[in-house]
Each structure stands twice: as structure tokens, then as C-alpha cells.
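Standup notes, structure subgroup. Blocker cleared on the zinc ion input:
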Amino acid sequence: MTTLSPTFMEAFSRLVAAPSISSIDPRFNQSNREVVEMLANWFADLGFTAELQEVSRDPDKLNLIACLGQGEGGLVLSGHTDTVPCDESLWARDPFRLMEKDSRLYGLGSTDMKGFFPIVLAALENIDLTKINRPLFILATCDEESTMAGARALVSSGKHLGRHALIGEPTGLKPVNMHKGILVESIKLIGRSGHSSNPSLGINALEGMHSVITALMTLRQEIQTQQHNPAFKVAVPTMNFASIHGGDNPNRICGDCELKVDMRMLPGMPLEDCRAAIRRSVMQAIDGSGLTVEFDQIFSGLPGMQTDPNAEVVSIAEKLAGESSGAVAFGTEGPYFNSMGMETVVLGPGDIDQAHQANEYLSLDRIDPMIGILQKMITHFCIQKD
Ligand SMILES: [Zn+2]
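Run returned:
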């Protein structure tokens, strides 16, 4: 096969060199257009149809949906094109210049997860693409690290993308079929300030927050007695009291107080039910106090993921990786894909310990095994011998 595709190292270097940070902080948020356009060209050169999907009103945030082959079944290989922000002063080298040292490839996004795409391209090099007779989709999404807007746009587009999906997030080449969900909630109590010498002059938001925290700790206890999954290192749902801000002067009644909590749900715990339970507990705790409350979800949350361990994509991944599937503590776009009728396994070459770190790298010895896994996955799902 002759292709116009760049070499593995060229492709990897160019992806790392194109900044595509996503952040809920507008100061750091960047476009991913350069990355998806590059990928679109490379996959189009291999014969894929390549569509860039706008995900919001921002024309510079895009998903790539590339497809080769037609029909039912097939395989979806997916990765996100954005990275987290990086503090260049903590890096020993330029984070946007891929560099090989000590059998590692250093660069922002090397492990999480721009490095997945040159590996996909390398896997395709050794496959006779004319034999592909089931659809092979390559998804390259945006904003995974910030709002999951890319995955959400895929869901709302209602596209039919097949049944079996692999996300190449860093799992150290181990198949993953489960992760927890994430819910972040801000609870702001509003009372009335007044002179500290006379409590009847105000409504103390800090005292109200004391009741709220007690109620939420009780709720946490209840949920933890009901929900348990031994596949997870922390086998119960957690609720972390992350920050609290309220009041000003000692001689003033605290007029408002804000608490932020982070909850990690087990798969199968619906996000909206958990949010509703938190809000109900808060409302009960301040009932009759005269306080009012404002809730803000900070980000819309991520459901937990649980793909049937007997799903074909999971068992094939287990066979090829030589490891049984398990759970991880980080979130992925998998629950969105599963909500579209896919069965998703997460399996990638990087290590999560390297993700979101200064001097992020991908070990060279992970690359060939991942190429091999992908070749066999593609052959299994997209080249039917009938
Ligand atoms: Zn990632």
C-alpha cells in the first residue's frame, strides 16, 4: 500500500507541536482545529471519509469522525485531541517538542493521549485496507479534559457508530471496562449579615453550612452502606468536602457561605439521582432557618462507566492484552459512547501516572504491543471472511 501518511515519529511530533489545551478557564482554553485537520488529512489519504463536526458555537472546537468501510458491526477507535494546560516552568524541556530520551517519548499529550493516533496509523500500515468490509471509525474528540463537549456532541448528533469501541486512554495496556462517575456541586447559602453582638440582626450562613455538612456526611454514610463494588480500589462512592468560603469580619454575622463537594459514584448510580439526593439533604438541613440556597453544578458531571465484562470487545481486548479487565479511578468518554449503544473498552499504551504531569512521556516499549493489539482488533472486527 502506498500512502501519503507521515512516518510514526513525524505524525507524533506534529500532533504534540500543535497546542490543543482545553480548560474551563478561558485563559488557557485553545482550539483543537490544527490537530483534527492534520488527522483528517492523514486518514483521508488512507481512503477514509473524514468529517469535522462542530461541537458548539465555537468554530474552533471540533470532533473528527473518520470512517472506512460500510455496513453493520465494525470497530470504533477513539481518542481525545486536547490536553490539560501545562506549566512550562516545571518541564525540563519544551512540552510541545516531542523528544526521545531514555527509551521514552517526552511531550505534552504523549501519553494522554495524542500518542494513540500515530499508533493507529502505524497499525493501519500493515493491514490491507482493501479487505476492510465492516466500518472502521476513527474518532478524535475535543474538550475531553474540560467539559466533555466533544463526546456530548457525538451523543446529540445521534450518529450510528457501530457496536464495538476502544478508547486509547492510558491504561498501561490493561483493558478497562469500569470507572466511577464524577459529580461536582457548589452549594451557596445566603443569609443576612449584621452586628455580631446581636444574633437576631442576621441569619448566619456559616452555622447553616454546619448543618449542611452534617447532613451530607449522613447522606454519604447511607450511600456507602448501600453501594459497594469490590472491583474498585476504593470500593464505595466517595464524597469529598473540597473547599469552603464564607464571612469576613469577626464582628459581623456571616452573610453567605459556599461549599464545594466532589462525589465519585460507582457505575450504575445515576448522576441526576445523586445530585437530587445532595440537593434534598441540603434543603432539609436549612429548612426553617431563613437561609436560601443557590446550587451550581460547576461542570455537568460524568456518569460512571460499566461495560458488560462479557462484551465481545472486552473479551477480545482481554485476550490480546493477556490481562483481565478491571476498573480505574479516572473518567473517560466511555459512558457517552455506551449511551449511544456501543460497548466500550478502554485500553491504551500510556500510564495514567504520567498523565497531567510535567515531563509527561510514553515509554517506547508500549508502542509495538499497542500496534499489535490494534491490528488484531481491526482484523477481528472489520475484516470478515464471509
Ligand atoms: Zn485522557
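Discussed briefly. The first strand starts at residue 49 and ends at 54.
Next: hand off to the docking folks.
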